[in-house]
Amino acid sequence: MNKTHRLDLLNNSISYFREAVSYAQQDSAETNHWKFAILHVVQAMELAFKERLRRIHPVFIYESVDKPDKTLSLRSALNRLRNPQIGNIPITDVEKSKIEKAFDLRSELTHFEFNHSHDHIELKFAEIFSFMIFFYRSQLGLETTAFIDEEQHNKIIKLVKTRTELMERAKAYIASREDSTVWMCPSCQEDTFLTSEEQCCFCHHKEGIVECPTCGGENLESDLIDISDLYDWDYDEGRMVLIENFGLEESACPDCISETTQKIEDIRRSQYDEDRAMEEYYARKSG
Ligand SMILES: [Zn+2]
Ligand SMILES: [Zn+2]
Fold it and tell me: What is the overall mean pLDDT for the chain?
């Protein structure tokens, strides 16, 4: 790798970051500028991750050592940075999942119709923005002035502060409820999903809580896993025909999924043993 490439990663990251910041501080009710702010800040993060890995060893910016023409995905970059053998950077599970949500958001913004609320995307931006400030300073050894102007910094800090205030308000709301059971919200990853209201009081994500058909435990609808592919199916004239469902329901929750899979394996094994015994019996009888 030549020297220009080396400089490009960091400089490009910073210019995307600056671009993101300038979109973010546009004071308008329109959601479109938030879309660009997210796209740019995620791009800045991707390049910063690669720069950090490159400083450990240039080979780490490639997906695989055998394919030095393909640079790695954001997810692999994140995994390498957290790997104690490589980056050993303290990025918590919660932070990791927030970062991954931001990746997903980027691809949604690029490929699909944009249907996120203004608030949601603003919060996402604030999260990644705060994370990037930490990353530039502590992981890439930059002074704040190297990647953001003071005035801009203050404006965005206000935005981040808004987020903190929103969070405090959400926590106070939870405390005021009689039934204050909260789960981690699948949308914002905060412990602010009020089960009694089936809604997150931070990002306002709504979702039904349902009983797991298999074990009866309470779960978020989106957590249930379709297990019908574990049934025995046959393919007949262009359609799937159910042979055997082993007396199972169509879905299971994360708590009981492994037990359920085990149960099917046990049934399959005992059916196989039984079939073998029958075969042997008939073979002996006719023989
Ligand atoms: Zn939420
Ligand atoms: Zn279950």
Answer: 85
